[in-house]
Known about the structure:
Helices cover 60% and strands 13% of the residues. By secondary structure, the chain is an alpha+beta fold.
Amino acid sequence: MTENAVRATMDTLNRDGAAGAMVGPRPLRDHPLRQVLTNEVHARPPESVAAPVRATMLAMLSGEGATEADRRHLEALCDWAGVVRPPQGATHHSASFGSFHLKWERHTEFSTWTVFRPSAMPAGALVDPFLEPALHALPRDWLAGLPGELLVGIHVAVLDADTPEPSPSMMAAMFGSESYVGSRIAGRSATAWTDFRIHGDGFSRMLVADHSMTPRQTGRVLQRLLEIETYRVLALLALPMARGVLPRIGPIEAGVAEVTNRIASLRGLQDERDLLDRLTLLAAQTEQISAETAYRFGAARAYYELVERRIEELREVRIEGLQTVQEFMDRRLTPAIRTCEAVEQRLESLSQRVARASTLLRTRVEIAVEGQNAELLQSMDRRAQLQLRLQETVEGLSVVAISYYLVGIVGYAAKGLKGFGLKVDPDMLVGVMIPIVIAFVWSGVRRIRKVLVGGH
């Protein structure tokens, strides 16, 4: 086949395929989750943000199962502004409300509400960007009814390329001190500063200078910065719990050590059972603490990994004289996570020690019980032998007694026959019948015993 013929054949197949797609169903059957799984990688896309802009992000900790409450609250805002409601079952939604733009995202145990508002800052001028935060655009009544409790609140200001970069003294005035961090990010196309503190208005502050970013890039950078602060605080939720369970772990460890030391000096089965009861109580207390902390410690690990990944995505470059976000997290967040991991490992080690001590003590108790069972079996065997001998004695006496009565009956019968005139010697007949009667009775008793034993 020539090259032209091959091309003609392919063109025909392509046209037929396109026509088939338009006029009829595909010949292949889709998996029920194909669309969902394909669209999952496109879920929660970053917003397209053009500087200058101000934003406020609220992370509300509401626990699992609060998705419907969040969605109903968002629907109330949409109805108030005449905006299309989010689709049923949605876990994230982004919409413009005229003077502001709102993005809602539902996570496992918390929700984030981010409001964007164009900055009213004069072009090329630098005034305090946190005087009029974007949060003021939301209705106060609606804001007060947000489900959950405020865990993270951040005001963000993005300066455009025409606005001069603030001086160190201006930065200190904005953040209230000189203890802020900052770095060049996104390939030096932006600079970000924050102090990771809660200010007098109850919110943290974050300042970003846009040097040459596109709106999509600005949105991605903002999302990473906000997620770093959100996941940082969520990861730290495990720290108070770790500190709280430490006083409970110490007595359990001491109790396990005492039980282990006493195992070698136990004297009786009752002591072993008492010690096993105490060890079971210690095991229950350990498992209770593990159950209380397992979810929080696991979540802390996951959030910490997300923080590290988001920091890597920033591609930080140091600003002389300032800590980077990575350095700040290494000094402040990492030790806290290591503390939680140490407590978790301590609980795991304690659980293993309790399990080993329980196994050792149970083995000792089982051996003692087996020894008692062996002695009991020996005692039962001796009793069975004695009972057998007694039974044989009773059987012998029974044979003698029954034979005695039968022989007596034979004697009476012989005397009766002699009285009727028959020539019978009663004494001789009794003497002859004695061995016969005894043999008959003995045989009958043995046959009855075999029947009874066979029946059991």
